[in-house]
Amino acid sequence: MAAERGARRLLSTSSFWLYCLLLLGRRAPGAAAARSGSAPQSPGASIRTFTPFYFLVEPVDTLSVRGSSVILNCSAYSEPSPKIEWKKDGTFLNLVSDDRRQLLPDGSLFISNVVHSKHNKPDEGYYQCVATVESLGTIISRTAKLIVAGLPRFTSQPEPSSVYAGNNAILNCEVNADLVPFVRWEQNRQPLLLDDRVIKLPSGMLVISNATEGDGGLYRCVVESGGPPKYSDEAELKVLPDPEVTSDLVFLKQPSPLVRVIGQDVVLPCVASGLPTPTIKWMKNEEALDTESSERLVLLAGGSLEISDVTEDDAGTYFCIADNGNETIEAQAELTVQAQPEFLKQPTNIYAHESMDIVFECEVTGKPTPTVKWVKNGDMVIPSDYFKIVKEHNLQVLGLVKSDEGFYQCIAENDVGNAQAGAQLIILEHDVAIPTLPPTSLTSATTDHLAPATTGPLPSAPRDVVASLVSTRFIKLTWRTPASDPHGDNLTYSVFYTKEGIARERVENTSHPGEMQVTIQNLMPATVYIFRVMAQNKHGSGESSAPLRVETQPEVQLPGPAPNLRAYAASPTSITVTWETPVSGNGEIQNYKLYYMEKGTDKEQDVDVSSHSYTINGLKKYTEYSFRVVAYNKHGPGVSTPDVAVRTLSDVPSAAPQNLSLEVRNSKSIMIHWQPPAPATQNGQITGYKIRYRKASRKSDVTETLVSGTQLSQLIEGLDRGTEYNFRVAALTINGTGPATDWLSAETFESDLDETRVPEVPSSLHVRPLVTSIVVSWTPPENQNIVVRGYAIGYGIGSPHAQTIKVDYKQRYYTIENLDPSSHYVITLKAFNNVGEGIPLYESAVTRPHTDTSEVDLFVINAPYTPVPDPTPMMPPVGVQASILSHDTIRITWADNSLPKHQKITDSRYYTVRWKTNIPANTKYKNANATTLSYLVTGLKPNTLYEFSVMVTKGRRSSTWSMTAHGTTFELVPTSPPKDVTVVSKEGKPKTIIVNWQPPSEANGKITGYIIYYSTDVNAEIHDWVIEPVVGNRLTHQIQELTLDTPYYFKIQARNSKGMGPMSEAVQFRTPKADSSDKMPNDQASGSGGKGSRLPDLGSDYKPPMSGSNSPHGSPTSPLDSNMLLVIIVSVGVITIVVVVIIAVFCTRRTTSHQKKKRAACKSVNGSHKYKGNSKDVKPPDLWIHHERLELKPIDKSPDPNPIMTDTPIPRNSQDITPVDNSMDSNIHQRRNSYRGHESEDSMSTLAGRRGMRPKMMMPFDSQPPQQSVRNTPSTDTMPASSSQTCCTDHQDPEGATSSSYLASSQEEDSGQSLPTAHVRPSHPLKSFAVPAIPPPGPPTYDPALPSTPLLSQQALNHHIHSVKTASIGTLGRSRPPMPVVVPSAPEVQETTRMLEDSESSYEPDELTKEMAHLEGLMKDLNAITTA
Fold first, then answer.
1. What angle do helix axes 1405-1427 and 1119-1147 make, rounded to 10 degrees?
2. Is there a contact between 934 and 889 (Cβ–Cβ < 8 Å)?
């Protein structure tokens, strides 16, 4: 049995590792579709589709220590599954014969006991995962670096020092960089607790600020990297009293240049000392940093600056300034921010034909600039005549052949990291049309003639193919039309050519139908080429002409490149280019051609130049251009120079800032907002903005203020109350100030009004209906001390929420147009400000009928406060759409019907986008301005529904808000653990605990399950903890069979569709000392007694539950039927008892040796799971009656194929039990070692707890005579069944739902040795005598209290039980619903039979005597029930 326990323990560990790796390798299916790209629809069945083949998980850089274990994760997806291999430093690893490195099932590489020494470093290096699918291709992952921390070496150690109280001190401790995370400090040889005053810098240095007397002592640093800890020298720090005299200000630690990657955290150290104690301030690029209000900038103890989540904008020069009132010192350091390679454009899948030219596009970014290499099916692509790198990163393949098919990967790499992206190339047969027309990745030479062919005659071969012009690097071919089509007006032609002796053929197509000549460019001099021409008509390609062999002319003497090419900007619109005469002119230079091109465009221009310099005018301001020069002699153009790039000079902006807006804040301040000028008009780097403002009444008195170039708003304060001001803004470059915006006016408030709450209700609302319009007038709220920024008018037929119009706060009336005549409208008016909308005021009106021609009364309300209404509001944007891009980003797009059809914005209008979520309900809107017809909203919460609307503003005219669009962001893995984890003991069950928790506060998606980890060792590795999966969103779980008086630790982890979240903190719980189940193994409810317990006195008024009013079906049942049923039950029980007594008497004749052998076998069979205590000696079962079962409730069973005990509601002998077929036994064995957690909740055998659910046998009560029963015809003797069940029993489940039999050895048996069909072992007939309930018709239902899971749970049976029969018991001719009878599964006989073949009973004579005494008491209780 020790071997069995070891096997179980190994299985548990293996299953845990496999599950963890599966979780790590799992990715969202949406990412799979995005990665593979969708294959185009094939026009015919012969077109192959692109195969999804990509990495789910790629290895990442890993730091390890000597002697530890490392997993490099890798998982690839494809159908069929790919073969995974690993490379180390470019060489394949032989993992078959490697005892330390092994390939895990999901493809990850597991390295146990990492080896690392000074002269032997077999595990450190660069690893790469290689996935291969036969007949498809190979892809390789990114390269991951495994670093093994070396032996600890101190480059500097703490030194004795002293510090004045209240001042700063540092203690050095520098180790090799890879060991810095393992450094900690000790004071007086006790671990030092770090806080806001005492910190450890990333270098390992200890900083103590505001020193106190308690800081004095002996300090040393410790390096703990897996082996024995290494200690530095001890140094004493003395804290001296404050001398109350000044001392010089000095730096103890100055910042040094640092390099960080985007997303990392950085600490710029800076510690100063002096008296008085100095204060530290930081500046970046001469701008003061606000560390108090910033969330990313934190000032650490001593003055060091911590920047979290570094971005590119954080790069620059940082100044640390120390000041103590007497003097100031400063130090500076440069922060360089690098970025890993990222793909701006990834390669896309391509269909092509042989002989075509294709281009795989790949655009990357990163800092430093990444280098790009290409890989085909895992092998490096070496540039050649047919494989070329074009436009820096793109791969061009010329003259495709069939062997070019496969997977191509673009691999980008820089000093920070590397990344890969791939695409598939499929080469179709020539008679199969390419699905897309034309593919964007085909070159211009091969984009013609791709239309699907139809049936019909094909053209014959073109005639008289000749080379009419042969040069050194090009050949011109001409031919005549085919004989089959003398006119040939609709024919197109393809010219195929190749070097002699080369199998790779290229193709060039004619530019338009009927053309019968083509010029082949970019040939090699003095080289033989083979040409053939093929004609195509609408039916397809015809015959090929005979091969034509042509040799190009030898190379003539052409000029070399012009040396010393230089370019410099002469003005904002001109650049001067100079060069010298080529060294190898090869004759007189006739002229030069200067080529130039604006960066970012593909259009190159040229100009002929006869001298060695030229100035190009009319260029764009502050724009980068590239230049090259080609020299010409009498033979033609020479070799081009390399490109040189230069930018034109900057100039003042040529346009004013955009979207200027004013917001009156209070009686003395106005907020100004604007947007930069259009990029094409900035003419340089915007260095700032000039704001000019004046009183409207004093236009000559202008005030100016300057703000930085990154600032797009400014609060102007110190203004006069109730005064109108004019504002304008101009942009600045280093060259000066650009044009300013038009003056924009705003008036400050008369008094400082309250805007901490919404406005009150308007004081009055009047409506006057007309035929197709309603005039609405109102007066403002009576409380004039609350800011009112406008009024919202809602109206509609029967409801005021159909349409909403917002007007200015000064307006007092509005005419609602375009209404229906004779219609009842409800109108609402609300005042609003920045806090929200106030209480509405309602009114209703009925528009007049068409026949009403009465004149409209003219009236004026509050004339002094009723200005002329603004022009008609603009039309709101339409077609607002929300496109979800990620878990925190949504793109909003819309259309503007007031724009021309091409939707091009030519005026100064701008759009305001607002968005909010309804959770919580009082969330405020957020706004942003845009000058295009789309806006990217970022910083959203995952898995959250947002609503968006857009309005347009042009000058003083604004539209209403558009119709809302909704979008829900994608899910993200949970970012917080489950909350409020509690563990309680189950009442009456000290071995059972209940774990409760609350969902994580940041679930970021629908929770699909939880994983409970528990262990007796809180410091154990997580893979050594036992896990309990919980499916769904349940918040409670039950764990049984724990060891008594033992502390357990519990952690919980939530999961959603994106993966696993963080674990909760460990919660400790100690199980109780007393185990009542040891004493009362058959107690199943609080109402049941212990051994030999009797039924309570039910009283004279008690009626059996099967009487008419208490029938579970609600149908009346006569007392005679109830008595008859009880008589039947008692009769069956008596018969069973007699059979048991006979068997028991026979068993007493066995020898003592047999009994001892029997007990030993029982103990060995009983076994235990991991973390469970071994069962004690088996005690004889108690005889008792379920009190609650007298109510005839359905008997619930928890479904486990290996129960501990099984209830048999009506005890019978072994022949009364219906057999279970062999398929059930084999399935039980096949599922025993399956991984826990695969629960099925829709099957009768669903895994729901540690206790087993046996299949139920339905026994309908009908008119058959009571003597009839179903019997088996066993093919073998069933005698060992009773004895085995009697021996190998464990404590039953105290829930009252289950008492069962269990054979521990059956878990390890071979499935091939299953029992015959009829060989069924029932539970002991005296184990229980529960009175069963009559369930309602249909399948049995179960109501488990709390689900629980075994440590090694078995998969639920997924097939129906076929060998279940029914027994009929006469009930006076009345039909009864079936009665459930639990049938135990048949265990397999392999080792169990050998141990039990000599024994038939586990009871000795004295034990049997006790049992007989219990039987007598049982019979008395049964008689009492019958007579009642």
1. 170
2. no
Rg of the chain in Å (alpha carbons): 44
Rounded to whole angstroms, how far apart are CA atoms 657 and 713?
Answer: 12
CA pair distance 993, 1152, nearest whole angstrom: 41
H-only helix segments in 26-97: 29-36
Q: How far is CA 1424 from the centre of its chain?
A: 66
Q: Quote the CA–CA distance of 1066 and 1050 in Å, as a whole number.
A: 5
**Spatial distance between the Cα atoms of 169 and 235, rounded to a whole number of angstroms:** 13
Residues 6+ apart with CB under 8 A from 1130: 1422, 1425, 1426
E-state strands within 969-1124: 979-986, 989-998, 1009-1015, 1026-1031, 1036-1039, 1047-1056, 1059-1063, 1067-1070
Is residue 280 classed exposed, middle or buried when 0-12, 13-18 and 19+ CB atoms within 10 A define those classes?
buried
Contact present, 730 and 737 (Cβ < 8 Å): yes
Q: Is 447 helix (H, G, I), strand (E, B) or coil?
A: coil
Q: Which two tokens mark 172?
A: 């050095």
φ, ψ dihedrals at 5, nearest 5°: -60, -40
What's the maximum distance between 2 C-alpha atoms anywhere in the chain? 135
Listed in sequence order, the residues at least 6 apart from 187 whose beta carbon sits closer than 8 Å to its beta carbon are 217, 218, 219
pLDDT digits (tens, 9 = 90+) for 364-382: 999 888 889 899 988 888 8
In 3D space, the residue among 1311, 1333, 1319, 1314 whose CA is nearest the CA of residue 1382 turns out to be 1333
Amino acid at 277: T
Contact 163, 208 (CB under 8 A): yes
Residue 1428: the pLDDT is 55
Strands 566-571 and 358-360: unpaired
Q: Is the pLDDT of residue 607 over 70?
A: yes
Dihedral angle at the C-alpha atoms of 1395, 1397, 1401, 1403, nearest 10 degrees?
-40
Higher confidence at residue 1191 or residue 982?
982
- CA 1307/CA 1391 separation, integer angstroms: 11
- 755 pLDDT tier (thresholds 50, 70, 90): confident
Interacting residues of 702 by C-beta distance below 8 A, sequence separation 6+: 692, 693, 694
Mean pLDDT of 268-279: 88
Query: Which whole number is the average pLDDT over 233-251?
Result: 84
Helix (H/G/I), strand (E/B), else coil: 1285: helix
Tokens standing for 1226?
Answer: 């084999």
In single-letter form, the type of residue at position 810 comes to K
Residue 409 has which token pair? 């990967």
Please name the residues in contact with 1148: beta carbons below 8 A apart, sequence gap of 6 or more: 1401, 1404, 1405, 1408
Mapped onto helix, strand or coil, the DSSP state of residue 252 is strand
In this prediction, residue 454 carries a pLDDT of 58
Q: What is the mean pLDDT of residues 247-269?
A: 88
- State the Cα–Cα distance between residues 193 and 368, nearest whole angstrom: 40
| Residue in the block written with tokens 């026994």 | 1259
Distance of alpha carbon 582 from alpha carbon 584, whole angstroms: 5
Q: Of the ranges 358-362, 391-395, 1323-1327, which is most confident?
A: 358-362
Residue 79 has pLDDT above 60, yes or no: yes
What pTM did the predictor assign? 0.39
Q: What is the mean pLDDT of residues 558-565?
A: 88
Q: Let me know: does 310 contact 268? Beta carbons within 8 Å.
A: no
Q: What is the mean pLDDT of the chain?
A: 74
Residue bearing the bigger pLDDT, 758 or 903? 758
Phi, psi of 283 (to 5 degrees): -130, 150
- Which amino acid belongs to residue 163? V
Phi, then psi, of 673 in degrees rounded to 5: -125, 145
| Residue with more model confidence, 986 or 1118 | 986
Beta bridge partners of 494: 509, 534
Residues whose CB falls within 8 Å of the CB of residue 350, separated by 6 or more in sequence, listed in order: 358, 360, 423, 424, 425, 426, 439, 441, 442
